[in-house]
Backbone:
């Protein structure tokens, strides 16, 4: 049954931006509820304004709604005022399309794009009146599955989800829905058993994690992980992520919001994966191989998007747009083709080379907003460590060119807390920023503006830095103090993370199954919207840790040994641990590794997906020498 | 070419703000493929003008918007291409051509008419008396955002249509001239219904006669 619409009508005028909670957008799909056998709700555990720009959710929405006997609707986490109002009115979380409580659906797919939404996911389930833990749910409850980037380490949330779709979801989600439907007569346990057979689907209850018997301080009653086991021989271990062989046709019938949202524009993915091999980057490691979309397909799809949505801007999505092999042709043709249609085109941060300047100029036409570069580190030494080697000199040359061509604002992205970083490397960030500003002032005088964003590096699973601990909070605070002292004054703006937020992110990213108790407790104590600086309740998290006897420092700061079994090894991204370790060692020697588009470094992806690989993958022939030590 | 499009805004779309509505129109017109005229400069915007902001949550029954086009179109063709691409809640009522030199619509608004359904647990007689008493006043002091003003001259008409099941239906015409613009919420407030739940329907935006 629908939620009480009259009650809803009385609530809406009392909350901010009520348009978040009503649906009805152009291109949203409302199917006949009773005529459909399998009903899926795609849920995004943050507010509508953010969730509407999640392309992954939009893609699945379209794919599922294109199936004749399936319907897919959406739900986002309401903002705090609406949560309070709904709880006060006894109104469960409902889908935007049919206004049905989430509990009425067969499957709820929750997107976990980053770790700070974990408590939000619990808030959504609770607001829907659905028991939080998988083992508390029964046959009458929906199947709760997760997908998205954070699920490359599913363990911290393993207790709450019935299943995880690891990797590309386009095919896996459809298979999951089909298996679920085919097993409708079976008991819950048997159904889950069948789902565990879907490639790329991880069903935590069929795995056992054993811990070292001897208790170690701060790890509760037991020590580090001793073994990860599948409970039955037919359960896959590790669960290998899914890859789509070629990118499916782009989603064109995008939902057009009727209120303002962040990234209020169309989006099209031009390539997936990245060959650069930056050692800090989880996406770069976990989303291999690189698959590109043909230029023609992008142009055609953009044309269709324009006609079907009316958007006035389109974002070309890519981890590294400069590496799209025909980026020049693509951009020129896009501009040529859509110039008369008042369509603006946006690209993520470009590489600092002269080619990027020309590219940006083509896109911008006469407009000059900001120009964004991500040198990531200030010193050549640190850039060698992270394998993102652009000589400082090159950055300055390019910046100089950017200013000369009319841009007055440059945005620079850096990280602090990288492995092996010294204060001197942080000073190098300051130097670089000051030099860039000076170059700008020579061209634009006092109009020159440099916006600097310094993120704290959080070591992520499945990367060469997965063994490294988070930089100590004292050290981070000192480094931020230096940046604050030096990067200020007219024409300079500095932005950095709250160290508590980074610590929380590290704990959640690097956690194991035991963390579920902490997440549950923290949520019960009021933690939610952990990604929002004005909402995060760090105290609740600390109390939750204290209650459960787990030491957050051991999760966040501990340097892990290469022999240690890591919680996320239950999942394989196709990139071998040995490759990551070699890369970690190379980073310590500050040795760079070339772009693997040029030569294969045997990361393991081709072996893992033998037989599935395709000529469109941007992998060169593997060099037998390089792959010898497999 | 300048077209005056009369439309209704209803359903869930009432929770889109005035600014949101501008963008909803822009995108709908782009989907329709009509030759929208754009402003110049580096950030060209389509030339669209709404007569008067419709507050969030209010239904608009007959709202006018002016649309400038680069090429003349047949009004029927315009409607035919627009109707299938309108979002839920937006309906086309009328399309007519306006002299392109005609003054901006915002300057031509003289009054707005409202139908308001409000929770009011009074017998019809009491309600009627209350309204009559209020209209008999020459001064009704109302405060909004710290500013005090006399509401009475802004109420051009106020009638009780019906009271049943503890809900009243009121009709009102409020002045909507620059600096002298009445809000239906203020009228309810003056009737002692400031906290009552109400549904607002703006039934008409009255313009000075234009050529």
Residues:
């Amino acid at each position: 049954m629908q939620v009480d619409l009259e009650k809803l009508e009385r609530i809406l005028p009392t909350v901010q931006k009520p348009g978040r909670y009503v649906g009805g957008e152009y291109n949203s799909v409302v199917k006949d509820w009773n005529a459909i056998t399998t009903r899926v709700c795609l849920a995004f555990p943050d507010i509508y304004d953010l969730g509407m720009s999640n392309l992954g959710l939009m893609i699945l929405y379209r794919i599922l709604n294109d199936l004749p006997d399936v319907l897919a609707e959406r739900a986002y986490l309401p903002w705090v005022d609406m949560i309070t109002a709904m709880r006060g009115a006894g109104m469960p979380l409902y889908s935007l399309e049919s206004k049905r409580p989430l509990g009425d659906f067969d499957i709820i797919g929750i997107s976990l794009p980053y770790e700070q939404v974990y408590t939000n996911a619990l808030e959504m389930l609770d607001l829907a009146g659905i028991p939080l833990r998988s083992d508390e749910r029964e046959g009458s409850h929906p199947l709760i599955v997760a997908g998205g980037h954070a699920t490359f380490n599913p363990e911290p949330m393993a207790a709450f989800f019935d299943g995880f779709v690891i990797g590309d979801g386009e095919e896996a989600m459809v298979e999951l829905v089909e298996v679920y439907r085919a097993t409708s007569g079976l008991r819950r346990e048997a159904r889950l058993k069948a789902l565990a057979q879907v490639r790329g689907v991880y069903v935590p209850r069929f795995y056992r994690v054993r811990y070292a018997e001897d208790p170690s301080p701060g790890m509760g009653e037991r020590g580090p992980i001793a073994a990860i086991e599948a409970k039955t021989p037919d359960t896959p271990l590790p669960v290998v992520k899914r890859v789509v062989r070629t990118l499916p046709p782009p989603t064109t019938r995008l939902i057009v919001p009727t209120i303002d949202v962040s990234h209020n524009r169309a989006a099209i993915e031009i390539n997936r994966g990245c060959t650069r091999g930056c050692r800090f980057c989880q996406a770069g490691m976990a989303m291999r191989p690189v698959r590109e979309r043909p230029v023609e397909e992008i142009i055609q799809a953009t044309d269709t998007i324009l006609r079907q949505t009316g958007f006035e801007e389109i974002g070309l999505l890519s981890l590294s747009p400069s590496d799209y092999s025909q980026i020049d042709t693509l951009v020129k043709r896009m501009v040529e083709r859509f110039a008369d249609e008042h369509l603006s085109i946006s690209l993520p941060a470009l590489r600092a080379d002269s080619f990027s300047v020309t590219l940006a100029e083509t896109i911008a036409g006469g407009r000059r907003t900001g120009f964004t570069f991500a040198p990531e580190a200030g010193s050549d030494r640190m850039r060698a460590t992270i394998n993102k080697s652009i000589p400082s000199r090159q950055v300055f040359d390019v910046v100089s060119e950017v200013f000369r061509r009319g841009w007055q604002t440059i945005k620079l992205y850096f990280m602090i807390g990288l492995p092996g970083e010294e204060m001197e490397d942080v000073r190098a960030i300051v130097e670089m920023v000051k030099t860039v500003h000076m170059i700008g002032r020579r061209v634009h005088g006092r109009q020159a503006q440099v916006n600097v964003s310094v993120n704290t590096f959080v070591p992520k699973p499945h990367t060469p830095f997965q063994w490294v601990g988070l930089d100590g909070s004292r050290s981070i605070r000192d480094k931020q103090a230096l940046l604050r002292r030096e990067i200020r004054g007219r024409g300079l703006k500095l932005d950095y993370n709250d160290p508590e937020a980074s610590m929380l992110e590290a704990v959640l990213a690097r956690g194991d199954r035991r963390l579920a108790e902490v997440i549950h407790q923290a949520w019960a104590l009021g933690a939610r919207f952990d990604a929002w600086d004005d909402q995060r309740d760090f105290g609740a998290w600390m109390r939750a840790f204290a209650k459960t006897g787990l030491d957050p420092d051991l999760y966040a700061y501990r340097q892990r040994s290469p022999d240690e079994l890591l919680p996320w090894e239950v999942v394989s991204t196709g990139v071998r641990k040995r490759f990551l370790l070699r890369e970690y060692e190379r980073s310590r020697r500050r040795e760079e590794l070339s772009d693997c588009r040029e030569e294969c470094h045997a990361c393991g992806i081709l072996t893992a997906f033998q037989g599935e690989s395709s000529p469109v993958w941007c992998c060169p022939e593997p060099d037998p020498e390089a792959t010898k030590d497999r | 070419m300048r077209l005056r499009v009369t439309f209704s805004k209803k359903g869930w779309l009432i929770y889109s703000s005035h600014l949101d509505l501008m963008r909803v129109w822009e995108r709908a017109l782009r989907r329709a493929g009509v030759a929208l005229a754009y402003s110049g400069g580096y950030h060209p915007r389509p030339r669209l003008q709404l007569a008067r902001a419709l507050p969030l949550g209010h239904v608009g029954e007959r709202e006018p918007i002016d649309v400038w086009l680069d090429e003349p179109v047949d009004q029927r063709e315009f409607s035919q291409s627009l109707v299938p691409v309108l979002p839920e809640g937006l309906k086309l009522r009328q399309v007519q051509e306006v002299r392109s030199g005609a003054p901006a619509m915002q300057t031509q608004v003289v009054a707005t008419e409202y139908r308001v359904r409000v929770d009011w647990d009074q017998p019809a007689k009491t309600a009627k008396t209350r309204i009559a008493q209020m209209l008999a006043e020459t001064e009704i002091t109302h405060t909004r955002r710290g500013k005090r003003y006399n509401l009475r001259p802004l109420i051009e008409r106020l009638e009780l249509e019906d009271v049943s099941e503890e809900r009243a239906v009121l009709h009102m015409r409020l002045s909507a001239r620059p600096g002298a613009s009445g809000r239906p919420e203020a009228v309810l407030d003056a009737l002692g219904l400031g906290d009552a739940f109400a549904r607002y329907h703006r039934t008409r935006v009255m313009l000075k006669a234009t050529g």
About this structure: The radius of gyration of chain A is 24 Å. The interface with chain B takes residues 9-10, 12-13, 18-19, 21-26, 256, 258-260, 264, 306-312, 342, 365-368 of chain A (CB under 8 Å).
